[in-house]
Amino acid sequence: MATDYSAYRVVAAKHPWRWVGTAVVALGVLAVAWSLATNPRWEWGVVAQWFTAQSVINGLLETLKLTAISGILGFVLGFVLALMRLSASPLLVSVSWTFSWIFRSTPLLVQMLLWYNLGYLYEKISLGLPFTDVRFFEVQTTTLISQFAAAVLGLTLNQAAYSAEIIRGGILSVDQGQLEAAAALGIPAWRRSTRIILPQAMRAILPTAFNEIIGLVKGTSIVYVLAYSELFYTVQVIYNRTQQVLPLLLVATLWYVVITSVLSVFQYYIERHYSKGAVRNLPLTPLQKARKFFATHSVATQARNVR
Amino acid sequence: MSTATPTAAATRGLVEITKVRKSFGTTEVLKGVSLTVEPGGVAVIVGPSGSGKSTLLRTINHLEKVDGGFISIDGELVGYEVRGERLLELREKEILKQRTGIGMVFQNFNLFPHLTALENVAEAPVVALGRSKEDARRRSLELLDRVGLKDRAGAYPRQLSGGQQQRVAIARALALDPKILLFDEPTSALDPELVNEVLDVIRELTTSGTTLIIVTHEMGFARDVADIVVFMDEGQIVEQGSPEHIFTNPQEPRTRSFLSKVLEPAFNI
User: Fold this and answer.
1) What is the pLDDT of residues B19-34, one digit of tens each?
2) Could A186 and B110 be called an inter-chain contact, meaning their C-beta atoms sit closer than 8 Å?
3) Residues in B touching A195 (Cβ below 8 Å)
4) Does ipTM come in above 0.90?
5) Which residues, in sequence order, are bridge partners of residue B229?
6) Quick check: B99 and A183 CB within 8 A?
7) Which of B181, B153, B173, B148 has its CA nearest to residue B163?
8) Counting one residue from A and one from B, how many pairs have CB atoms under 8 Å apart?
9) Do A185 and B176 touch (CB under 8 A)?
10) Among A73, A250, B49, B125, which one has the highest count of C-beta atoms within 10 angstroms of its own C-beta?
11) How far apart are CA A117 and CA B134, in angstroms?
12) How does residue B216 score in pLDDT terms, banded at 50, 70 and 90?
């Protein structure tokens, strides 16, 4: 007869090397933190002084504004370009392809300067009948293309070229059978894209799209070449005056870290939303995990679990 | 004799396929196929893989455009409009409208994974037929009840078994009140023990007055429910007739050779 083990005590396996590894990593982290805190050259006082200064906050708002506008416009245009690329019309396909080709193959810096200096190439921008002298409306290019307009134009068009490919990839990742089923049910084309295909494509699109947007947040710093006073240009102006180069770069860096962190939280919840139905059960949110942790580790529950 | 007889007093759902041809690249998969299914009739198409069964089914709701021949439903051409002596290709919108009269059930179910069972069923009646959301919801619950899944209305497809998913897919196809239902190997992706729950639902539909065209490898089921059995091979209909005729007294050597391979001892019991 088999022995009955049900009354025996279970002893968990021991992992001594895991503890050694943890200790080494903890020491390393501590050393870095120590040097950051104690090395006076980081000038944390200066960082603190400038971190919430009015000019820095203004620059930050400009950075957020540029990111939001060119991010949204870029992805909307990218969506249109992706649909063109997937359409049955050879003309639309080649226009979309050419757009992505041009904007992906020229440096963003060059595009920026080109847009800003458009007035040199075309003095006036006008609306009229082509090949005639009839003009309904005419403006000086330089008044139309401000630093802001050049920045938005450059960032948007560039962003659109990349997001078009991301969205196209997402759409291609959805099973062809989904389109067939929707078509067989008589669901109209626009509804097929927005209700059936896009929500499923989002799972493939989102991680890369957030990569792009986080890249764009820091990418906006390139508009300093237009002397546009976003976050990075602002701190440059300040350290050129005060000569406190490292602490001010740190100020800008910390703000970029803050924005990226906030975006990462958004990313987590948006991805979770679109994973509905794709996984059998949704993973717990960090908050739910914490609640569960405390619920199972509280003294009361442990007492209850003891036989 | 070579056409299906209606099992109920159905007046709509007459399918007439005339000399249909279809090629993919240089391979001709349908070589002039003609078939008539009477309103409310049940036609079961059998044959080896690659014989063109599925393609024929997909031409009926215009998921595949034919290269030659034509298909009509209740005398109305599928995909084309007759204007004088010319056939005008229908626009997308009109094709979608035709499709609402033809339900289709796929081998891989093709349920929308991000929508619940109820949302899957209720989507098309709202956007394709313009029913109210409340109305569609109520009717969809009825249909889910009919396939025995009312209590799983809120579940996502991946939370359901294969058999349950296919039953939801059948409810989804029924939601448009189609004249015709097309089944493309509805049980081929299922585990053997789940096949019957799906076949039972389909069997129940055979007396509903809806025309059913079923591509399947389930010979016992075909024999049981079919008004007409169609044997296809290499893009052609080799032989068609009543189940008794095809299964007990096939005339063509190709039919005999196919049936001898698929009718295993199980059928001789």
Assistant:
1) 999 999 999 999 999 9
2) no
3) 123, 127
4) no
5) B44, B241
6) yes
7) B148
8) 75
9) yes
10) B125
11) 58
12) very high
